[in-house]
Amino acid sequence: MNCIHFDEIDSTNKYLKDNFETLENFTFVSTDYQSSGKGRENRVWLSKKFENLLFSILIKDKLLLKKFNVLSIGTATLIARFLELKGLKNVSVKWPNDVYVNDKKICGILLEGNVDKFLAIGVGLNVNQTLFDGDYRVNPTSMKTELKEDVNLESLEVELFEFIFKHINQKLFTKKTYDFLNSHNYLLNKKVKAGNITGIVNGITKEFELLIGDVPINSLEILIL
């Protein structure tokens, strides 16, 4: 595991996209502040300096690249598991790339890259930020808000990176992940819309796709109705 840290950068994902050829597999790039952070659908990711974890992971492993369509939800599951180990309650995973706590968003994930060569997994985890400016589609929360105490960012980063590095492999897509997703599925029994498909979420398939009615979905934006 190779770790690179910046005080400030435009985007950790962009750094990996610009430098993937010279960086090794499982390089972690973190920063105290992103000037051009973004989420899915080109939405802006806002984060106060020195208060949250902002990082990206470079994936060049061919076996994992073949799992690109479910790597986002797999990473979200890892982070949800980690948050439970840190003492957070009511943690859930919202398809396809968010982690919620008590119905509020605590973490977002963005995959970018070329699936034939590399992927950059961008992660924004709210840690010590308690005041969130701007308009949000879903109310945000943070570890500090939920735990009622400050969290040491440096120690947390080390622990989380080691946890991800240990588990982000082919074993990520096993029954343990499948069972966790099904028991922590934020969308379960909710009516949603994905493209032209509308229905009730019935669970997660064995291929880690979201099941709307009897239709498996893997990469579309999901709207709760």
Describe this structure in words.
It is built from six helices and twelve strands. It has 225 residues and is of the alpha+beta class. The strands form two sheets. Strands 1-2-3-7-6-5-4 form a seven-stranded mixed beta sheet, with helices on both faces. The mean pLDDT is 92.
Based on secondary structure, the structural category is alpha+beta
Give the rounded overall mean pLDDT: 92
Oligomer: single chain
Cα shape: globular
| β-strand number | 12
What portion of residues belong to β-strands?
25-35%
Spatial strand sequence of the major β-sheet: 1-2-3-7-6-5-4
- Ends distance: 41 Å
Are there runs of 5+ residues with pLDDT below 50, and where? none
Reported for the largest beta sheet, the result is:
7 strands, mixed
Rg over CA atoms, rounded to whole Å, is 17 Å
SSE succession? EHEEHHEEEEHHHEEEEE
Helical content band:
25-40%
Helix tally? 6
Keywords:
single chain, seven-stranded mixed β-sheet, alpha+beta
Short description, anyone?
This protein has helices spanning 12-19, 62-65, 68-85, 143-147, 153-167, 175-183, and strands spanning 2-6, 27-31, 53-59, 91-94, 98-101, 104-114, 118-125, 191-194, 197-204, 210-212, 215-217, 223-224. It is an alpha+beta fold.
